[in-house]
UniProtKB/TrEMBL annotation:
<keyword id="KW-0804">Transcription</keyword>
<dbReference type="GO" id="GO:0000428">
    <property type="term" value="C:DNA-directed RNA polymerase complex"/>
</dbReference>
<comment type="subunit">
    <text>RNAP is composed of a core of 2 alpha, a beta and a beta' subunits. The core is associated with a delta subunit and one of several sigma factors.</text>
</comment>
<comment type="similarity">
    <text>Belongs to the RpoE family.</text>
</comment>
<keyword id="KW-0240">DNA-directed RNA polymerase</keyword>
<feature type="region of interest" description="Disordered">
    <location>
        <begin position="92"/>
        <end position="165"/>
    </location>
</feature>
<protein>
    <recommendedName>
        <fullName>Probable DNA-directed RNA polymerase subunit delta</fullName>
    </recommendedName>
</protein>
<feature type="domain" description="HTH HARE-type">
    <location>
        <begin position="14"/>
        <end position="81"/>
    </location>
</feature>
<feature type="compositionally biased region" description="Basic residues">
    <location>
        <begin position="95"/>
        <end position="106"/>
    </location>
</feature>
<dbReference type="InterPro" id="IPR007759">
    <property type="entry name" value="Asxl_HARE-HTH"/>
</dbReference>
<dbReference type="GO" id="GO:0003899">
    <property type="term" value="F:DNA-directed RNA polymerase activity"/>
</dbReference>
<comment type="function">
    <text>Participates in both the initiation and recycling phases of transcription. In the presence of the delta subunit, RNAP displays an increased specificity of transcription, a decreased affinity for nucleic acids, and an increased efficiency of RNA synthesis because of enhanced recycling.</text>
</comment>
<keyword id="KW-0808">Transferase</keyword>
<dbReference type="Pfam" id="PF05066">
    <property type="entry name" value="HARE-HTH"/>
</dbReference>
<dbReference type="InterPro" id="IPR038087">
    <property type="entry name" value="RNAP_delta_N_dom_sf"/>
</dbReference>
<keyword id="KW-0548">Nucleotidyltransferase</keyword>
<feature type="compositionally biased region" description="Acidic residues">
    <location>
        <begin position="118"/>
        <end position="165"/>
    </location>
</feature>
Length: 165
């Protein structure tokens, strides 16, 4: 049934998505979102204020409804118009492969010379870079904690071995 065949009362009762579906069927082509929304709102008899109020809900419903497809930037059509292969091509274009020449140039930049001499200056550490708190650490205390842990672990292991026998 065409949109033109509906009475004013029938159009007011129909949902905006149903009207959008009918509009796309009548047009037989995908439409820009704003154009589709304007036609739908006009059929519903919305004022400018009401159009502004319902646009977000319409977009959300259009996105969630499985009958519609965003074919390209802002262009909406019916999903049944597009074969699966065509949908994949339009929505996600495959990235182009880099040429071998560009790959080789990139590899040359990334490679470091194998015979490059390392100097003491290359290995020097800036003292300001180091944290001053490192000097305050008591490393002997850390060793004592490790030793205590090892002893506790060994005693628990011995107990479990005795229980297994």
């Amino acid at each position: 049934m065409s949109i033109k065949e509906y009475s004013r009362e029938e159009l007011e009762v129909k949902s905006m998505l149903e009207l959008a579906h009918e509009i796309l069927l009548d047009e037989r082509r995908a439409l820009d979102f704003n154009e589709l929304y304007d036609k739908t709102a006009d059929l519903k008899g919305f004022t400018e204020e009401k159009k502004h109020e319902f646009i977000a809900q319409f977009y959300t419903d259009l996105t969630v409804d499985g009958r519609f497809l965003n074919a390209s930037a802002g262009i909406w059509g019916l999903k049944r118009w597009y074969p699966v292969e065509q949908i994949d091509e339009e929505v996600a274009a495959t990235p182009k492969k880099k040429s071998k020449k560009k790959k080789q140039e990139k590899q040359k930049k990334e490679e470091t010379p194998k015979n490059q001499e390392v100097t003491e200056e290359d290995l020097a550490i800036d003292d300001d870079f180091l944290d001053d708190d490192v000097d305050d650490l008591d490393l002997d205390e850390s060793d004592d904690m490790d030793e205590a842990f090892d002893q506790e672990f060994d005693s628990e292991k011995a107990e479990s071995d005795d229980e297994e026998k």
